[in-house]
Specification:
The strands form two sheets. Strands 2-10-9-4-7-6 form a six-stranded mixed β-sheet. It has a four-stranded antiparallel β-sheet with strand order 1-3-8-5, with no helix packed on it. Helices cover about 35% and strands about 35% of the residues. The radius of gyration is 25 Å and the shape is elongated. It contains two helices and ten strands. Strand 9 and strand 10 form a beta hairpin.
Length: about 200
């Protein structure tokens, strides 16, 4: 069945529009996990850095809360790692450079950190540098809570993340279904027009 080029473009545009409108953002800004832990624990933190723009990320800088103590940084064969320390000898910021994170991809950077001794909310600062010279700045919070209250909040956060994944999958399916409905409707219209032309003397 012949279909004009404008209808092909309309189908593609509608499909893309449906996916963009109905699908929640799969990429979040740069963030740090876990978001909650207990005092004095040696914890492996993961810095998640997505590139949401069309320009690659070429450098990442993490500024560490003064109360946190970084013991080790995960080795990388592709990134160069630079550190600066305060008067106590503690690492205050870490910079990853010399590689890139292409658009619509992400990278993870791991650190072994000793949590603060005092419960509270601690602020990390994340600087994301792009190939065009622009810089995005993000903030991540870590809640340090007494051990007795940590379990329930962690389970609630895990349930919330699972619900986000399920919602994303469901809405992607809805977007695909809308595209199929549009394609089917256009096919029916074209078929009816073709049948009428054949019936004409």
């Amino acid at each position: 069945m012949y279909m004009p080029s404008w209808q092909h473009r309309a189908i593609i545009a509608c499909g893309v529009w449906g996916l963009l409108i109905l699908t929640p953002t799969a990429w979040g800004h740069s963030d740090l996990d876990p978001r909650q832990s207990i005092p004095n624990k040696w914890e492996t933190y993961t810095l998640n850095v997505p590139t949401e723009t069309e320009v690659p990320t070429v450098q990442v800088r993490l500024l560490v809360p003064r109360e946190c103590e970084i013991e080790m940084i995960e080795h990388s064969q592709v990134w160069q790692i630079a550190k600066s320390r305060d008067e106590r000898g503690y690492i205050r910021d870490v910079t990853w450079s010399g590689s890139s994170i292409p658009p619509q991809t992400f990278a993870e950077f791991k650190l072994l950190v000793r949590n603060p001794a005092t419960p509270g909310t601690y602020l990390w600062k994340i600087e994301q540098y792009y190939q065009d010279g622009s810089v995005a700045t993000w903030e991540a919070q870590t809640q340090i809570v007494p051990p007795a209250s940590a379990g329930g909040t962690q389970r609630a956060e895990e349930a919330w993340r699972a619900a986000q994944v399920a919602t994303t999958v469901s809405l992607v399916a809805i977007g695909v279904s809308i595209t199929l409905i549009i394609v089917t409707a256009i096919s029916i219209v074209q078929g009816g027009r073709g049948q009428r032309r054949e019936e004409q003397p």
